[in-house]
Each structure stands twice: as structure tokens, then as C-alpha cells.
Amino acid sequence: MSLYSPLTLAAALALLAGCATIPKPLEGTYTDVSTTSAQQGGAGGTRVRWGGEIIKTEPGPQQTCFYLLSRPLDSQARPQAGNAGENQGRFVACREGFYDPEVFTRGRELTVTGTLHGTVSQKVGEFDYAYPRVEADVVYLWPKRPVMVDYPPGFYDPFWGPGFGPYWGGGWGPGYWGGPRRVIIVRPPPPPAPK
């Protein structure tokens, strides 16, 4: 394996990231309304594209409602992860049909498009919270993010060997130099979400 293979892989990943596009079901033009301003009312009937982390999923007789911790969306219309995505309040999105809470579980990332339709009051602890309500026409469940695994310096890895590696010409491997190794597990994308 040549020294240039990791560089080629890094360049290919950067190129793919640069070509990131919004999934077809989420395309369109939407009004830039924050969840905070929607809580105050006056935005009813506005078309929005919002996303966040699922807090809970509640199926009802005709529709399923998703309670979400709102996050800003990235260039793909995906909620920004963890610390990268600041908390923007909460909202609820409801869509006709049954969505399994065992699939749409707490912590999964969801982007929805739809129309603002008032607020729904629910308790958050002892506090009455006004969730802006979105009548959703698209519910897009994102695949789980790749798992990052850090190995401590000097950790034995069958690929690298005990401190040696193929990219170092039999010299000291990355563990010797003190930098943690990262293993990225990439899963295939999910099938398109139902419209």
C-alpha cells in the first residue's frame, strides 16, 4: 500500500462532502422562521423546513407526532450534530400514518417540511411549554452518524501492529507519536423516506 492511498481517500471524501446536496424530498424554498418566534404566534400557515433530535415519538389513531429538540440545519438540511448544533428550543411535527417509535427513537435526527399550525402546550418537568406545531408533509429520518473509535497511543491494532504500520516503512507507527487513531465506520445510506 503506498503512502498516497490515505491522501487519495481523504481527497475523495473532501470532494464528496463538497458535493453534498439536499435529499430530494426536502428540497424547496421555505420561510426562515425560528421556533422561538413561532412560539409567539403570528406565523400560522408558513411553510418551514425544520430539524432536530427526537425527544419522543407518539403514534395516535390517525397520525404520529414527533417531539423534537430543534437544531440548525447544515447544507444538506440535516440537523447539525451535538455541540455543533446549538439548541433552538423545541417543536412538534405531526404526520398522517403510523411511524414506529422503535425506529424513530429518542436521539435520532429528523428533518421535516410542512406548515406551521399554532402551538401545543405540554409539560417539560413542571413547566408548561408551547411547542410550535408543524403539519408535516415530509418526515425524513437520517441514518445514524458514523461511529468514531479512539485508540490510546501504543494500543495494539492488528492492522497497524504494536507501534508499527505500513505507512511508516516499518518505522514507528502513529501510536508512538502520541496521536490517537480514529476508525470511521460508514454505513450505507437508508432508502428514501416515505413522502
Explain what you see.
This protein has 195 residues and is mainly beta. Helix content is 10%, strand content 36%. The protein contains two helices and seven strands. The chain has helices at 4-18, 35-39; strands at 47-59, 63-71, 90-96, 109-124, 127-141, 147-151, 181-185. The strands form two sheets. Strands 1-2-3-5-4 form a five-stranded mixed β-barrel. A two-stranded antiparallel sheet has the order 6-7. Strand 1 (47-59) and strand 2 (63-71) form a beta hairpin. It comes from Rhodanobacter panaciterrae.
Provide a brief overview of the structure.
The protein has 195 residues and is mostly beta strands. It has 2 helices and 7 strands; from the N terminus they run ααβββββββ.
Descriptors:
195 residues; mainly beta; five-stranded mixed β-barrel; two-stranded antiparallel sheet; 2 helices
Topology as a string of helices (H) and strands (E): HHEEEEEEE
Structural class: mainly beta
User: How many helices in DSSP terms?
Assistant: 2
Strands, total number: 7
Average predicted confidence as pLDDT: 79
Rg over C-alpha atoms, rounded to the nearest angstrom: 22 Å
